[in-house]
Amino acid sequence: REDHSNEENIYKDPLIGELVDALSKVKKNDNDLKSFKKYLGEELKDKNSKLFSAVSGVQYGYDMELTVYTENVDGEIIKSDTNELMQDMLKDFFTTAIQNGNLDMEGSATTDGSSTMFSSMMNMQMWQEILPANDGSTINPILYEQYELINGTWPNDYDEIVLIVNENNELDDLTLYALGLLSEKEIDVIIDAAANGKPLPETDAASKKWSFKELSELEFTTILPADCYQKMGNIYRDMSTNESILRTLYENPEKTTKLKITGIIRPQKDASATMLSSGIGYTYRLTEHVIKRAVESEVVQAQLASPTVDVLTGLPFKSNVGSMSDAEKETAFRSYVNSLTMTAKAETYVKIQCVNADQMYLETQTDAWLDTFTTKEQIIDMISLIVSQSLGVTPEELKDYFLELTENNWTVDQLKTLLRPYAVEIVRAQIHQQVEQGMAAIPAQQKAMLLDAEMAKYDAKTCALYYDEVTVFSEGTYEDNLALLGHLDYDSPTRINIYASTFEDKDVIAAEIKAYNKTVPEEQQIKYTDYMGLIMSSVTDIIDAVTYVLIAFVAISLVVSSIMIGIITYISVMERTKEIGVLRAIGASKRNITQ
Predict the structure, then answer these.
(1) What distance in Å separates the CA atoms of residue 395 and residue 389, rounded to the nearest whole number?
(2) How far is 198 from 205, CA to CA, in rounded Å?
(3) Which residues of 295-308 are buried (b: 16+ CB within 10 A; e: fewer)?
(4) By CB neighbour count within 10 A (0-12 exposed, 13-18 middle, 19+ buried), where does 569 fall?
(5) Which of 180, 188, 182 shows the shortest CA–CA distance to 71?
(6) Handedness of CA 378, 381, 385, 391 (dihedral sign)
(7) Residue 365's pLDDT is what?
(8) 342-357 and 444-455 helices, crossing angle to 10°
């Protein structure tokens, strides 16, 4: 870029242009984890493979929300999720604190680190998948080294879980609340004390304890998102917000999966690091089970069978419109009209008449409306009025700006071209209003009958036009619905965590991934993040910086020391010159002087 720093002018820095150019060059890179998962599975079975000995464990992650419920001590069905419960607690806390004037809303960032604390608390994961072993068993040997089993057995099946406590056999109060062991009233006492700035009062909860037997008798139930949808007519509705229906689901063994605690573990006393935090650990077999159950659910099967229609609303997906032919749109439009109620048919008939009116009158009436403006000032007045409504300013504030902008090189026709898009929408609204007013007196039943009669006359092209213009589309997409319902492909994970056997094996794994990338097309190549490498890189940078500082200090010290030694030696000789002369005069040799 040319340097203008020595000139007495200001030049434009093309920030927006460079930003747009950069964004236009950004490509979305999706890892083909399905192929890589298959590759890893084959490599970890081959004892001669480099990855066989270099990898201590592999964990596959999915965009899956494990929804687990339990019955608390109050007899209520609660979601066993510390994150969700924390959100509810913080909402209550802030509401109470603001009402009592104990919270300053002006400063969200605090010097005492409370923002960081809240952030870390919001990321607590109570339900965690245990790292499996490479041979397919549910528990990786690393877990046996990091944790000791203090009661029961390790989980092995999909319906078995393990309770994780800290080294003091403790669970935090939020986890106890999510496990259903503390009541909402006991948590409210803590929230009220914090919100009112008072010390925590002594409660029975502070001294509570539970035996291993009591904990092993806790019951948890997974309710799949898909199972919360019940068919009502031609669509499926979410019933999870209905407490009575939720309890019915919770108690239905055919619709849910019951989970049981088989053991309790805690970190080994000599463990330098552990993989799991306090809460619940489940095996990868539960993940497999949940994904399989979701695919088999009624609502998922209905959505898979109907990729163009949203089974949750009964409306078609707009994302499919661009790829549909006229014949497909005709079929979809006729099916859509046939599914409408009488009132909806009447509204659709009015919309069709509006579309017909647009085709007949929109162009000519827009031209006629624009012809009413004969001067630049009239057009600028209208543009200022329209634009001011969207910007929230007065037309007078914009008028001077537009006048100055178009003062020299803008003709009336050019200004009309600028105004035309706004004119089209204004005239369209007027036409639709006239059509709706003209048809308001016709009964809805008659409009519906007129639509049925005219449908027989529509050809494929006409149906395609009306499908695009009058159909009410779903706000979601086919893919969004399947994700919402928990439909996942177990062979296509969204993330893969690879654990190295030793620190040196980290480089072996990286080299094998690079070798794999050379054997597949560019779109299937794996982009990965080396977390340990990032940490070590940061540590290395810090050590290098400290080393450079120490070297500088040592170098300075050596130079200063050398100068001081020379000065001291020189002064010592100077001070003893007369003594040396006397010694030489009485017969001392040079060797004697040196000695």
Answers:
(1) 8
(2) 18
(3) bebebbebbeeeee
(4) exposed
(5) 180
(6) positive
(7) 93
(8) 70
* Residue with tokens 């001294």, as numbered in its chain: 207
CA dihedral 582, 583, 588, 591 (to 10 degrees): -120
Report residue 521 as tokens: 């097309």
Please state, in angstroms and rounded to a whole number, the distance separating the CA atoms of residues 298 and 315: 18
Whose structure tokens read 């006397």?
582
What is the C-alpha to C-alpha distance for residues 122 and 89, in angstroms, rounded to an integer?
A: 11
Euclidean distance between CA atoms 314 and 231, whole angstroms: 11
Please say whether the beta carbons of 521 and 30 come within 8 A: no
The number of helix segments (H) and strand segments (E) in the chain equals 25, 12
Mean pLDDT of the region 458-462: 92
Q: State the virtual CA torsion across 311, 315, 319, 321 in degrees, nearest 10.
A: 130
Residue 230 confidence (pLDDT): 86
According to DSSP, residue 261 is labeled: E
Give the mean pLDDT of 334-359: 91
Asked if residues 369 and 423 have their Cβ atoms less than 8 Å apart, the reply is yes
pLDDT of residue 152: 93
Which of 83-92, 226-235, 275-284, 506-515 shows the lowest mean pLDDT across its residues?
83-92
Contact status, residue 322 vs residue 421, Cβ threshold 8 Å = no
- Find how far residue 56's CA is from the centre of its chain: 28
Q: Which amino acid is present at 515?
A: A
pTM of the model: 0.67
| Half-sphere exposure for 6 (CA within 13 Å, toward CB) | 2
* 436: amino acid identity, one letter: E
